[in-house]
Amino acid sequence: MSVGDGLRRLCTTERAYWLRVAAVSLTTAIVLTALFVASGQSSSIAMTLRHALVHSLIMAGLAASSVPWLRRRLEPLGATAQWAVTLPFVLTLAAFGSLLACGVIVMVDPGSHANFWECFRLALPINAVITLTICTAMTLYESQRRRLAAVTLELRTRELERERDRKMALQARLASLESRLQPHFLFNTLNAISALIQEDPDQAERTVERLAALLRFSLDAAERGLVPLAHELKIVSDYLEIEHTRLGERLAWRVDVTPEAVACEVPPLAVETLVENSVKHAIAPRPSGGSVRVQGAVAGDRLVLSVWDDGPGFTDAALAPGHGLDSLRQRLAARFGDDAALTIARRDGGTRVTLSLPATVVPAR
After folding, report:
1. Residue 251 placed within a domain
2. Which is it for strands 302-309 and 350-358: parallel, antiparallel or unpaired?
3. Integer Cα distance of 345 and 87 in angstroms
4. 221-235 pLDDT, tens per residue?
5. Are residues 151 and 265 in the same domain?
6. Residues 170-191, buried b or exposed e (16+ Cβ, 10 A)?
7. pTM
8. Residues 140 and 38 in one domain
9. pLDDT given at position 100
10. Degrees to nearest 5, angle at CA 320 with 316 and 324
11. Greatest mean pLDDT among 86-95, 150-159, 189-198, 341-350
12. Are residues 214 and 90 in the same domain?
């Protein structure tokens, strides 16, 4: 919290405190006026209310200014010592406040009393009771209010600690899942390069450059959590080019993603995992190879990405624990909860794996 915010909060707290003091003063003046009028000791309601307001405002102001300061100084001594010192102090305030209030009344309304000392004699007992009542009530109220604020702060602190622990556990889980994915991805890519070293050194060199880009992307993505889909598609293209050097014409692919979708963010290597799964299980094992098609679009507030291949297909039941798609599904659940889904279905003579997640637009830079 900045110094400015702290000062504003302090001013707001002080303003609320003095508004409560003013409300107590006004209530006390009204009650006293009603009592005096009901007992027949006053013939003028306006004058009685005016005098009661002067007394209650002065007494409440003196008590509200000095008693909290005194109580804070006496707090280490315990409750008994606090009240033993506070009560005489309050009675002294009552005497001083009565002198001050009567002086104001005599100067402003000289015809209301015979003299200053008669006003003081009549006001002192009443002001003593008023001051004791106000001080006791406000002390108890402010004490309970401070306790409530302390309990609320403790609860908020615990909630923040629980939220921090939950986020740390989530980050650890995501890091574990991504670390499990990256060596598998790296192994497959290195395997493709090793096959080219003897056959086509130039192509192997270009493939190493693509691998360097892939590794750089993988390391940067681990720090960000989400990456622009445009960057993810670049990595997908690099991966497909690497696999194309190994499989040749047996691998055909097409990427068809709308501009709205490209502007969104996705978990790193999410689409690449789907493409790698298609190449590894649907294209590479078949002598005739096959086709892979990547599609993406925004539907309402959802980003829908899919990878289709013309392989023999598979179902959710075929996903063993630790499988690339199983790990991806866990990553989606850890990051988005129930707000993301991975589905597998037969479509157009092949298998289509679809990702559906919130459409988060890449922030402008």
Report:
1. yes
2. antiparallel
3. 82
4. 555 678 889 988 988
5. no
6. eeeebeebbeebbebbeebbee
7. 0.50
8. yes
9. 83
10. 85
11. 341-350
12. no
